[in-house]
Amino acid sequence: MNAVEVLGLRREFPPSKGGRNPSRTALDGIDLTVGEGEVHALLGPNGAGKTTLCRILATVLVPSAGTARILGHDVVTELTTVRPLIGCVFGGDRGLYGRLSARRNLCYWGALYGIPGREIRGRAAELLDRFGLRAHADERVETFSRGMKQRLHLARGLMHGPRVLLLDEPTTGMDPVAARDFRTLIGELRGEGRSVLLTTHDMAEAETVCDRATLIDGGRIRHTATPRELGALLSRHERIEVGGVPAPLLARLDSCPEVTSVRTGPDGSTVIEVSGQSALGPVLRLLVDGGVTDLATTRPSLEEVYLRLIGDRGMEVAS
Ligand SMILES: Nc1ncnc2c1ncn2[C@@H]1O[C@H](COP(=O)(O)OP(=O)(O)OP(=O)(O)O)[C@@H](O)[C@H]1O
Asked: Do the record's keywords include Transport (predicted)?
């Protein structure tokens, strides 16, 4: 059974009263599956529909059409079955009580989920430890930094031991060490058999933690694949990165029929693209015979794939 199964999902937002904001199609027929135990990243520019999809899966927003299931249960008609199965981390200040301590926030949340009283304190202490918040456990949350709140959100999302985690930009506001620890945590959650759907703008995060990534834009899915497959999608050309190529050899490479492009960056390193794998051997031989030892074949990063497929719109939000 799949952890998440979405079919033909649509969500329209009607125009605002007075017509100042036009109607918007946030999701325009989405099909997506996340297997059990899979970590799946949802990538896309601002306004792509990622949060809308997460909110529907989290049962806080209903779709206009289509279906969404969590571990086989419909998020609209089986809401009370779905809720205990999912842990949601949407960030911001919502869901945390500023005047309560971190520990009391977790205990309160545990009680809401019906965890037996004698287990709640132990579970809260365990999670406070796991997220490096033990020293601040009894301080008011309103005194916390954004990154600390984000960690507490994650702890809260795990309080009732959900099998499926929906994380909307979980590392926003975390410092690099906390973000690295978070990636380790995701690995642990996968090891425990939990499934994770996470939205992120951080390509390194997606590339290192996810089994598959889905690129979404304008409410539609552009591609779903492993990061490596996505890289392969672009590389009809194999690439070789080399350092210190002498000028005469560069000229020879440029005139090679197998070579499709030669680019030298300001740091002196050169990227050579060749037309397909069979062309790789002769070009590598030419380089080695020419005395070049500093070379590596590479694939495009997830970030390059993303920019190529979604388009580099800079700050422009999809309309
Ligand atoms: N409550 C709402 N009312 C009207 N339009 C909305 C509402 N929520 C979202 N939208 C619109 O739906 C589209 C998708 O928004 P969504 O928040 O899902 O995008 P996102 O991919 O999460 O973006 P970001 O990366 O900026 O968080 C956008 O055009 C947005 O303006």
From this structure: yes
**The domain that contains 247 carries what CATH number?**
3.30.70.330
ipTM: 0.96
Looking at residue 302, its pLDDT comes to 77
Angstrom distance (rounded) from CA 191 to CA 172: 24
Q: Do 105 and 213 belong together in one domain?
A: yes
Structural domain includes residue 75: yes
Rounded distance from Cα 47 to ligand 1 centre (Å): 5
Taking the centre of ligand 1 as the mean of its atom positions, its distance from the CA of residue 43, in whole angstroms, is: 14
Q: Which two tokens stand for residue 84?
A: 């205990």
Number of domains in the chain: 2
**Closest atom, ligand 1, to C-alpha of 216:** 21
Burial status of residue 12 (CB atoms within 10 A of its CB: 0-12, 13-18, 19 or more): middle
Mean pLDDT by 10 residues, the chain (319 residues): 97 83 91 96 90 95 97 96 93 82 96 91 95 95 89 92 92 80 87 93 83 93 85 70 87 87 87 79 88 80 76 53
Contact 127, 106 (CB under 8 A): yes
In ligand 1, the atom with minimum distance to the C-alpha of 169 is: 27
Q: How far is the CA of 76 from the centre of ligand 1 (A)?
A: 20
Amino acid at 41: A
Q: How far is the CA of 209 from the centre of ligand 1 (A)?
A: 25
Angle, CA 113 vertex, CA 98 and CA 174 arms, to 5°: 45
pTM (two decimals):
0.81
Ligand 1 site residues, Cβ closer than 6 angstroms? 13, 24, 26, 44, 46-52
Q: What is the pLDDT of residue 315?
A: 45
